[in-house]
Specification:
The protein is an alpha+beta fold. Helix content is about 40%, strand content about 15%. The two termini are about 20 Å apart.
Amino acid sequence: MSLVLDAAAQDLLFREARTANSFTDEPVTEEQVQAIYDLVKYGPTAFNQSPLRITLVRSPEARERLVRLMAEGNQPKTAAAPLVAILSADNEFHEELPALFPHFPQAKDAFFSERAVREGAAAMNATLQAAYFIIGVRAAGLAAGPMTGLDFEGVRKEFLDDDHTPLMVVNIGKPGPDAWFPRSPRLAYEDVVTSV
């Protein structure tokens, strides 16, 4: 059975897409970011909790603060990317559940009254949404450079608050010269999939 998505779209989103390590100086527009969000917001999360929060680092001053918190090898690309997003999990996502999960508004208190439970759910579901976000960036014809080499506590203190847990930083833009490292190997189907 073949995929319904045409080969060019498969390549754009998966086969040819890789983490970008350099970008052109072409700006990423607000309209592009809005279009990305308007696409990826439909990705499923448990209880439709939608805990991902996106902080766009736009000002030069904020960019300098973020670059200092990145691992040394990630600093130059974060400094040069046209747009940088901090993706975080909102640990107070349950406050939105009466609106986001209206057929069972009691889920807010029935399942998520304890902070530790919320933190686990937020981390898992926001990470899932982060994957959607990366694919959405690719669908917009842009390249994404997701990174976890950073001072997480520093990013939380500098850009977020105690209710948000940083997950990753994503550089976004049109790929520049030598943007791609060679494709790394992948596991074969039979090494990943089992039937029981």
